[in-house]
Design goal:
Arc Repressor Mutant, subunit A; two-stranded antiparallel ribbon; 11 helices
Length: about 220
């Protein structure tokens, strides 16, 4: 309770209301009612609501009204990161370093939580990626790349870790790496490591998978131009 009281002053009236009313996940009262209850002007409430929307904390629909969403750290990080990339695109490399450390540090914990269904899906993702690489017209399997990494860490009960990783892939696309081919040899090498990672996960050899992850991460930094 002491911690909550210390943090609360940093929040707007609307965000404090949102965090302390579980029923808000159903539907919030009208803006007029909230304005009276919170003791703030309608204009001020609308401003606070827009901040909550930008942070991905609420959903506003014309017919169903406003409701609280499940907490996600990703929207706030994505907006800040998008601003950082607009200031200087080289900030992606710095954020990429952070993401690399996160994936490496959480590897053992994350893969141990994966279900048999998750492991099957990882195999399917690798298979789809290799189909794209070996088809008549080579395609960059970016969708599969993103899905594979996010699925590996999806069972962590930590919205801050998963939020940071989700934001990375949005930034990856923003700087155009999702369109980057780098040549078939490069792509084959990348997905060779992905295949090793997935096989190691399925075999319970997490150390080998982590080693493949680290080597694969280094490929991006030394990718051919």
């Amino acid at each position: 309770m002491v911690l909550r009281e210390r943090i609360s002053p940093e929040l707007s009236e609307f965000l404090r209301y949102l965090a302390s009313h579980e029923e808000a996940e159903g539907s919030l009262p009208s803006l007029n009612d909230l304005s009276r209850e919170l003791g703030i002007s309608l204009a001020g409430l609308r401003e606070q609501l827009e901040v909550a929307r930008a942070l991905g904390l609420v959903e506003v629909r014309p017919r169903t009204g406003t409701r609280r969403l499940a907490y996600s750290f990703a929207p706030a990080v994505m907006k800040s990161l998008a601003y950082a990339l607009t200031l200087d695109q080289s900030n992606f490399e710095k954020y990429s370093e952070l993401r690399n450390h996160i994936e490496t540090a959480y590897w053992d914990e994350a893969v141990a939580l994966l279900t048999e269904e998750d492991k099957l899906e990882l195999k399917n993702i690798v298979a789809r990626a290799l189909e794209k690489l070996h088809g008549k017209q080579v395609q960059v399997p970016h969708e599969e790349h993103r899905k594979l990494h996010l699925l590996i860490y999806s069972r962590l009960n930590n919205p801050f870790v998963t939020g940071l990783l989700e934001a990375y892939w949005n930034a990856y696309e923003a700087v155009g790496l999702n369109m980057y081919a780098g040549g078939i040899d490069y792509l084959e090498e990348v997905w060779g490591y992905h295949k090793t990672m997935v096989q190691s996960i399925c075999n319970g050899n997490y150390a080998a998978g982590r080693k493949a992850l680290i080597t694969h991460i280094d490929l991006l930094a030394h990718r051919p131009i």
